[in-house]
């Protein structure tokens, strides 16, 4: 067991020393907004009563990978299949790069390979939360000291 800062964990993920599931990668990118544990504590104490939102990613299969669409993204379905009973599969023959060029409202995790993730968010976070830093696992800014 090893304790790591969010930036260190992402660096280990990038170098394929560890694997991090996309939701946890997203949250580590959110934690990179804070340079210290005391900053995180202050932020969490201030926004504790603001509420939270529960949501589920929707997978869009692309020609060269896939995208986990999150609420607020322009491609997120109006009525997502929360239970899996409808068996709705979203797919396109387009490449991820083309989908990114065509879009303008993003809340997504782009996955090209198991250790190649990128978070893209340009919507306003709800409940006074902070958006994740948009970190591509191919390039890391290690400013967080948590």
From TrEMBL:
Keyword set, alphabetical order: Hydrolase, Magnesium, Manganese, Metal-binding
Obligatory cofactor(s): Mn(2+); Mg(2+)
UniProt key word Zinc: no
CC per GO annotation: mitochondrion
Molecular function GO labels: hydrolase activity, acting on acid anhydrides, in phosphorus-containing anhydrides; metal ion binding
Family recorded in the similarity comment: Belongs to the Nudix hydrolase family.
Record's protein name: NUD19 protein
Organism: Dryobates pubescens
Lineage: Eukaryota, Metazoa, Chordata, Craniata, Vertebrata
